[in-house]
Please model this.
Amino acid sequence: MKKISPLLAALCAFLSAGAALADPPTMVGRLSLVEGSASIRHSYDPQWTQGGINFPVIAGDGVWSDQGSRTEVEIGGAEARLDETSELDIDRLDEGGAALRVPQGVLNLVVRYLPPGGLQVVTPVGQLSIRQPGEYHVDAGRPNGPPTQILMGVLSGEATFSGLRGVTELHSGQGAMVPPDQSLLQVVGIYPTPFDQWAEARAGQLAASQTVAYVSPDVTGYQDLDNYGSWQTVPDYGPVWFPSSVAIGWAPYHNGHWAFVRPWGWTWIDDAPWGFAPFHYGRWAEFDGRWAWIPGERHERHFYAPALVTFVGGEPGGAHVGWIALGPHEVFHPYYAHSDTYVIQLNRAHFHDEHEIVRWDHAPPPAEHFANNRWANQGNAGAFAANQTAPRQQMNGGPGNRPAPQPAAQPAAIPQGPRPGPQPQPQQQFQPQPRPQPQPAPAPVAAPQQPHPMPVPQPQPQPQQFHPVQPAPQPQVQPQPQPRPQPQQQPQPQQQPRREPQDKEHQAQH
Model:
């Protein structure tokens, strides 16, 4: 029998242990627009807290649009818009697909690209499975309101509704109306409400014409780039994006703040309306005095990171800590618990040698590599940023800058993985289609035959539950649970435990 060398066995055991670690999510959504006030409920905290733009949203989280408000959540190539007093829960968001739940209120969903595992919208009376890019409307009713039918409509595109009364195909201009007791199902013709018209105007502003040629649609926030910058091709780097609405002397990772967001820890929240994709994917570089974002190779799937910077200066736990945006082909070293597979996924679009990625994550690179410049952006004007509220740790591994030992006290553990949700549909490729005019209402879909079948009433040409937004305040409505936004408190930085090699040689400082 062939023997395995001790070195190979140790390497296999080490990689297996790394893969067994619970990695944080690599797919996220973000709050991209808040007109009025919105709240977020995290998977690890039943309390609602105030939400603002560019805050990440993951599986298990919920978003609430307050009375008199409208809120938008971007998830890759989809945009979910909530009318007032409406709730959206993220049941699932991973490589296997996305499942959004609407327990109450009104949702307008624009799907530009279907995720590989499909997209479903879950309501109290059934599930709407999106089959083509398009625009969709869901009205799940208001809490404490009069009994009303729930509507799942296709303004453009194609979907399948699955409920107690079976499966129904819905095409452009059609909707399924189901009462709360699900005693029958009607297919009716639908038309846009004033809220849909507002959502359609907003979707038109985000209709990316150039960005989709350079950025994969799994990059959350890519829709906002065309309106705030321009693309150019630069030798050795390919397509890069230059922001146009920035002040003289602007540099990345300066205008925003740090927030402690589980499960990653310190997360950069940028102030710019476009400030999500360029700060959680890709790298930055300076060209002739102008900063540009380099998204990486489009054919590679992109993975979310809380902040693509290196932390420098000061001592671990000290008050003065700064950060610099990572440059092209620089490895991001996560400062939270992770596996080797996770590191490779985060860096593959910019650094293709997987052995180098893993080696740099555990041991310092050759000294001559940084003989002239330690970091690519180190000498660029305005690249370095620091303040008293920065994370007081050297969190990004690198030459001479390894993460400090982590304290024993940690925040409460976060449930790993999304809440149980519907199974995704098989991957399909679709092309967006323009929204046609509403079609006449077809004959209703009868319930399955029973010993005493109930007659199905004729559908009405307009559904009753479409309620245009009125300027007057709504009747007093109390959501269940009622969000009680609380001012967020930035916790003291607590590094999460990460696996480190046992031998002292691998603990050398970069």
